[in-house]
Amino acid sequence: MIADFRPGAPCWLDLGSPDPDRSQDFYHRLFGWEFAAPAGPDEFSIITSAGHTVGGFVDTRGMTDPAGQPWPSSFGVYLRSDDLTRTAERARAAGAQPHEAPSPGKTGALIFVDDPGGATVNVWQPGTIAGFDLPHAPGTPAWFECRSTGFDAAAKFYCDVFDWALVDRTGAVHDGTRYVTNGSPTGTLDDGTPCPVVCGLADAATMPGPEQSSRWLIYFHTPEVAAGCEAAERLGAAIGATGSTPFGTFAHVTDPCGAEFVLNGQ
To answer: Is residue 11 within 8 Å of 126, Cβ to Cβ?
Structure first.
């Protein structure tokens, strides 16, 4: 995966936590992440790993979701938009309800929306922050994946709203689960259009029971997955499903505050 911040591609991520000290200590110890103080009100605390920009950190204490419940600790994926108003209109036309969010200063503007399968995705119109770095180094993003129990409806939604160019990769990952990527692993579509692969969509309805839920997942590079799991467990995390694909081994991890991510490596 390369840093191709075309509209509809993942370009930013955040980690929100109602226990910032505990979350930041965990990721500092696991990945070596550093957390800069926010530059102003409502702005992100920028996460870096060995000098590379990873994403933003949000203190969610006192924040509530659209249902009025306390905002849980979680990672968020942001898809690029060059016109947030137009993207919101397209989302409504596709049957989704965009939700406004506090604008993080001059860094950019955002909304979030639930796709037809129930996965929440953020939409980012860049200001001073265009996106994260993708150096393929430990502690930085390796892959972005939407798992959906409403695969067909979700695929149509991301095409209609974000102009995804879907490439069928069924059989290449997740033991035959229906799978498509936004863009081609070769970097070029069958018609010759340049379109590097930037993220994937999996049919969660056909996965094992515990995996049958709709959500976006972020995979992070680690030199060795087993060692990463051992370190995460020592720091209070829980290890979930593990496995391998042609792109390496993986392990689902839930951090001590409840945020889920995936380790990806050898």
So the answer is: yes
